[in-house]
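Treating backbone geometry as a discrete language has practical consequences that deserve illustration. In the encoding step, the backbone of a single protein was reduced to a row of integers, each denoting a local shape. The amino acid sequence and the backbone structure tokens for this protein are reproduced below.
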Amino acid sequence: MRLRDESKELAIREKAIEMIVREGFDGLSMQKLAKAAGVSPATIYIYFKDREDLIRQIYYEEMQLMSAETLKGFNPEMHFEEGLRIQWINRVNYCLKYPLRMHFMEQMRHSPFHEKFQGDAKNPFSAVMRVFVSNAIERKELVKLPIEVYWSIAYAPLYQLIKFHQSPGWGKFTLDEKRLDEALKLVLKALKP
């Protein structure tokens, strides 16, 4: 049995993320991944059972990283305005620090893998956010809305601004603190009772 090499495993994971972001899930073959990572195809199977296991493990790892980054300094007992501000700042920081990972997670969210893997992810993020939203509704700091409507108002504007900031085709838009505050004020206004 061959020994595990952390640098090879990391190279496989990084190249898999790059390939999925660039070519989609259909563009990820073990043969192409091995070549991109500079390992033999057999090496991949030391670390992952198959292609789906590779995607699952990367998703779990990225979910943990994203959760840790977005929950920094956040407490579900915070008042809604303060908590949402921290969420926005943390999400901007995560997306700008890890743009490739952000795009990977975005692709996961819109794939059949998301629903398939999400239940097994053992991620406290959703529970923390449920408590935060529930507390805000109880304190009458937030209008009660279906989760899809809440998320669309609370976070979709932020992610669109991040995309404008990262996209070269949008001229010289820079997501700075002033623009972030302007957008957040409008979002808070829309969500308050």
